[in-house]
Design brief:
Blueprint lengths: L8 H17 L33 H11 L3 E6 L4 E6 L8 H4 L34 H5 L10 H9 L2 H6 L24 H16 L2 H4 L10 H4 L6 H7 L2 H5 L35 H15 L1 H6 L12 H28 L1
Antiparallel strand pairs: 1-2
């Protein structure tokens, strides 16, 4: 005697829903970036990536400079004493060749920006006084770089607290080292690495006593204490760039705001970020959102974003709990259905 097994449509629906929940629940990561690693994660060291310098047109010419400035110590012949001398290179003057050849200016010769008189050693002391180029000296009015809107960035910077308080002492190079700076937000698919990279630029001054003292004699503020109003401070610092709260909102044409506001005007309103329309995070997620939505669709682009929206963003713990409850319900229904089939 053959026993017929009747599969109810509801069972099939439950099984399909279970599969969808499993796939959707584990398709992202909410692991926060640890604060203690925030200043080092974006640092590219020779041990991590070794760049083939020979592929760059001016690498051979630049090697003469890197023989000294690419090392922690250098050797030269003291002709007066007739002996070889080892000297330590000042930390501020050490430039990693790997970092340079990963930067925006990797195709340059050193003497494109520095005087050709640096080719002689010892360097003439007067060269310390030479003019240092700014971004606009090269990029202003250049159609090749129009997409980056350097003129608009410069206008914003001139209105920033950095420029207003420190005038000509504060230049682009205070934040963007010309030897190592590289575009990040437009090219990095990992939004957390972008956050670390950008925050490190701020922390290099605001958490470094020596650099902070170059511009002011006042006591360097304690960043942890000054942000003690912020709940879950470590997670915020690891998940949001400083500029999201400390700059004026940017236009769609730029990804980073350069009008840094006084600390009194910094955003301290939770809903500026944790809402259905987090305009404050527009610059951080602007590029990523465009890319994700173009590849994965609008719904998936919104629901899988790293941004946290109250009542909308998913929570890993709740996902697991709901998954367990759902699986338990399905197992219970399956067990009950099996018993009924066997008793027929």
């Amino acid at each position: 005697m053959t026993r017929e097994i009747y599969l109810r449509p509801s069972w099939l629906v439950i099984v399909l829903l279970l599969l969808v929940v499993i796939l959707f629940a584990f398709d992202y990561s909410t692991e926060p970036l640890k604060y203690e690693n925030a200043r080092t994660t974006s640092r590219i060291t020779p041990e991590e990536i070794t760049v083939d310098h020979s592929q760059f047109p001016n690498a051979e010419v630049n090697q003469k400079c890197f023989q000294c400035h690419g090392q922690s110590k250098y050797t030269y012949e003291n002709t007066e004493q007739g002996r070889m001398v080892n000297e330590r290179m000042y930390t501020e003057l050490i430039i990693s060749p790997n970092d340079f050849y990963l930067s925006n200016h990797r195709s340059f010769k050193c003497t494109d920006c520095h005087s050709e008189e640096y080719e002689t050693f010892p360097h003439p002391g007067i060269l310390r006084m030479e003019y240092k180029y700014s971004c606009l000296d090269c990029h202003e009015g250049d159609e090749n770089y129009a997409q980056f809107h350097f003129e608009q960035i410069d206008a914003e910077f001139m209105e920033s607290v950095h420029s207003q308080k420190h005038s000509e002492e504060f230049t682009c190079w205070m934040c963007h080292n010309p030897h190592t700076y590289k575009i990040n937000a437009r090219t990095n698919e990992n939004i957390r690495e972008t956050i670390v990279y950008d925050n490190t630029i701020c922390l290099d001054c605001h958490s470094d006593f020596r650099r902070f003292q170059l511009l002011t004699d006042r006591e360097r503020p304690n960043l942890i204490k000054s942000h003690d109003w912020l709940p879950n401070q470590e997670l915020h610092i690891a998940s949001v760039r400083c500029i999201e709260c400390h700059t004026e909102r940017t236009a769609d044409s730029t990804l980073v705001g350069h009008k840094v506001l006084p600390k009194e005007l910094a955003v301290k309103n939770c809903k500026e970020c944790h809402s259905s329309k987090p305009e404050l995070l527009a610059s951080l997620y602007k590029y990523e959102a465009q890319e994700v939505r173009s590849m994965d669709g609008i719904f998936r682009g919104i629901t899988t974003s790293d941004s946290v929206v109250i009542g909308a963003s998913r929570n890993q713990t709740l996902n697991i709990i709901s998954l367990i409850l759902f699986a338990g319900a399905v197992i219970g229904i399956g067990f009950h259905a099996t018993l009924r089939i066997l008793k027929k």
